[in-house]
Amino acid sequence: MPVRIDNQILVNAPMDLVWEHTNDVAGWPDLFTEYAAAEILEHDGDSVTFRLTTHPDPDGTVWSWVSRRTPDPATRTVRAHRIETGPFEFMDIRWEYRQEAAGVAMRWIQEFAVKRTSPITEDGMRDRLNRNTAVQMAHIKQVLESRARDGAEHGPGDLHAQRLLYLTCGLRLAAVVTALAELGIADLTGGGPRGVAELAELSGAHPDALYRVLRCAASVGIMAELPDGRFESTPLAEALRSDRPFSLLPLAELSAQPFVTMSYGALAYSVRTGQPATTAALGSDIWRHFEDHPDEGECFDRVMTDLGRWETDRHLDAVRPERFGRIADIGGGHGHFLAAALRRAPDASGVLFEQPGVIPRVDPTLAAEGVLERVLRVGGDFFTDPLPDDCDAYVLKAVLHGLPDGRAERVLRAVRTAIGDRDARLFVVEQVVSGGNRWDHAKFLDLDMLVLFGGRERRLDEWRLLLGRCGFELVNRPGEGHWTVLECRPAEETGETEEPR
C-alpha cells in the first residue's frame, strides 16, 4: 500500500523568489545539503528531466537517479517523479506554494512504495524521509531568507521592498478585479482564450485600455497572456465566473461600493480614535448612510444574503436543528437560515425576530421554502424589546461581530433573560480569529467591523470572556479561520472582565 508523508515550512521571502529559486534545478546543490550535482538532461515545455547526484553518505556510497519535474506557475504547484526509482516501486512528489501573511508556506507531499527487495522497510523509509525532509526544508528556508535580505546580490533590488510595493498596490489591484467583474471577462474567457479585440467588442470596452488592464491582471496571476497575444482564464479568475456556485462576484461588487472605498480612505481616523470611519468619511453612521443612499444599502443586504447562504448546510450540521421544537432566529434577516433549519426539523416551529421595517419583506422567502405557516414573524429591537421566551434554541448569526463588546453584551443578556431557567441552547454563528501570523480572512473582516460598524471579530478567548459575562458557556470547540458555530448553554455569570473597548 502506498505511503504518504506530508511536510511544510514557512519561508519569510517573496513568493517569486521562493518559486524561482526552488524551481531552478541546476542550482539545487546550493539549496540542498545532500546534492553534489544536478545535471539537466532535457527541457520539454514546462517540464525538465534531470539527474541528481548526492554527496557520499556515511558509508561512502554516492547515490544518483533521474527525475522529471513539471511546474505550474498558475497554481503554484509542481508535480515530480523519479524515473530511475532505485529502492522504490515509485516515488511521486507534489510541491505546493501558498502565500501567507508571514511568507510562503512551502509544502512537499511525497507518495511512494518500497520494493520488496529493498533493504529498507516502508516504515524505515518513512522515518528516514521525514527526518531528511525536515533538514532540507530548514536549510532551504535559511538560504532563501538570506537571499531575500541580500536581494541585490541574487536579483533586482530589495525583494522585501518589492513585496511591500506590491502590497501598496492593493487599491489598484482591487480596481482591476472590479473592472474584470463588471466587464464579465472571466465568463467570456471561460470557454478558452480570446483576443483583446474580441473581448473588447463583447464587453463594450476600449481595446487598448482593456489590454492594459488585462496585462496588469496577468502579472498577478488573475489572467494569463499567451504568446500570440490572447488572454486565458486562470484558477484565480475562475472565482469571478457568474455561473460558479461560490462566485466572488458579490464580494467584488460590494468592495467597490462608495461606502467601502470612502470609509477605508479614512482608516487612519479609526486607528487614531477607535471609532468607525464612516462619520469622518460619509458624514453619518453606516445605517443612516444606507437610508440616504438606498442603492448602496440594497447592495449590502443582497450581498450579505448571498454570502450568508454559502455555508448554511455546514453550520446546520453543527446546530442539528432536528433536536429542537422551537427555534428563534434573532436578527435573522429574510429568514433563509431559519427556513433551512426548519426544513431539517419538520416537526419544529420557528420565530423570526427582526426590525419592523424588515418583517413585511420576509414572507416570500419563507413561502418559497415551504415554512411560512410554521414561522411567527416578530418585529422589534433586540436592544429594547423583549425576545421570545418560549424557544429551546436561539440563533445569532453574523449579529455580534457588528457590535462593540458593550452592545454585544446587551444582546446576549437579552437572550439569557429570555431563556431564564430553561435548558435552551444559543448558537452564535461567527468567525473565530486565529492566533499568530497565519493568514485568516477574519483579520480583514475585523477591519471592516472597525471601519464600517464599530464592531470586531473575536478570538476564542475573547468569545469565552464575552459569553461568560452574560451567563453562557461554550459546549463545543469551534474552528478557526472560517465562519463557525459556537454552541452555548446557560451558566452562572463568570464576572470575568477585560480592558474596556
Note down, in words, how this protein is organized:
By secondary structure, the protein is of the alpha/beta class. It has four domains: 3-154, START domain (Alpha-D-Glucose-1,6-Bisphosphate, Chain A, domain 4); 169-255, Arc Repressor Mutant, subunit A (Orthogonal Bundle); 258-304, no CATH class; 305-490, Vaccinia Virus protein VP39 (Rossmann fold, 3-Layer(aba) Sandwich). It contains 22 helices and 17 strands. Strands 10, 11, 12, 13, 14, 15, 16 and 17 form an eight-stranded mixed beta sheet that branches. Helix 15 crosses helix 16 (294-308). The radius of gyration is 28 Å and the shape is globular.
List the helices and strands and how they pair.
Blueprint: E1 3-11, H1 15-22, H2 28-31, E2 35-44, E3 47-54, E4 64-72, E5 77-82, E6 88-100, E7 103-114, H3 122-149, H4 151-154, H5 159-168, H6 170-183, H7 185-188, H8 196-203, H9 207-219, E8 223-225, E9 231-233, H10 235-238, H11 249-255, H12 258-264, H13 267-273, H14 278-282, H15 286-292, H16 294-308, H17 312-319, E10 326-330, H18 336-344, E11 349-354, H19 363-368, E12 375-379, E13 393-397, H20 405-419, E14 425-433, H21 441-453, E15 458-459, H22 460-469, E16 472-474, E17 483-490
Parallel strand pairs: 10-11, 10-13, 11-12, 13-14, 14-15
Antiparallel strand pairs: 1-7, 2-3, 3-4, 4-5, 5-6, 6-7, 8-9, 14-17, 16-17
